[in-house]
Amino acid sequence: MGLQAGVFQQGLFTAYLATRGLSSNGLDGGQITFGGLDTTNCGAVKGYAPLTAQSYWQFDINAVYAGSSWLSLTTTTAISDTGSSTIVGPSAVVAQIASAVGAVWNDSMGTYTVGCSAQYGPVWLYMNNVAYPLGPKALTTNYSPTGTGQCIFGIGNSGGNMWSSATRGSASTAPSTTWPTNASASPQPTGCGEWRRRAEV
Fold first, then answer.
1. Could you say which of 65, 113, 145, 169 has the lowest number of CB atoms within 10 Å?
2. Per-residue confidence (pLDDT) for residue 18, from 0 to 100
3. Which of 138, 158, 174 is nearest to 79 (CA)?
């Protein structure tokens, strides 16, 4: 309706969430751009993942790579959730991701934690044959409730076989957009990208 009325230039929107840390009261937390791309805060579009259900902004995650291994080559349903600050996924895959980046399970908090200043290679999520990297800047939160230098890790267990992804940017380089044909192959850096969602308005 917005496109036909000339309100929006394009049938898409961009969600940008700023990283502000814990002392963020009164600060701009991000921006949503209806009918176009946010060219101020976001980089070039790497690609789109087609919706598999419009009611939940549902799409597919085709593969997960972290450390030096393909952790999953099984297509799994995901939903996009801009109201969340974390990504959650299938427990078995998340446990492998945590191991690859050095995150450990914290029983008292019911989540994974990682060293607040830890440096680790990105976690690559493949959607529609495009790889999206998430490194420490996106995945290590600024929240250390125990005061021990361990911060909450930005990927947790969904309790099921589905992914729910927060909108997270990344400063890492993105690997080849060619779908892996060999499970032992490593993604190769080619450029950067941001996450966006497309809507027919």
1. 145
2. 65
3. 158
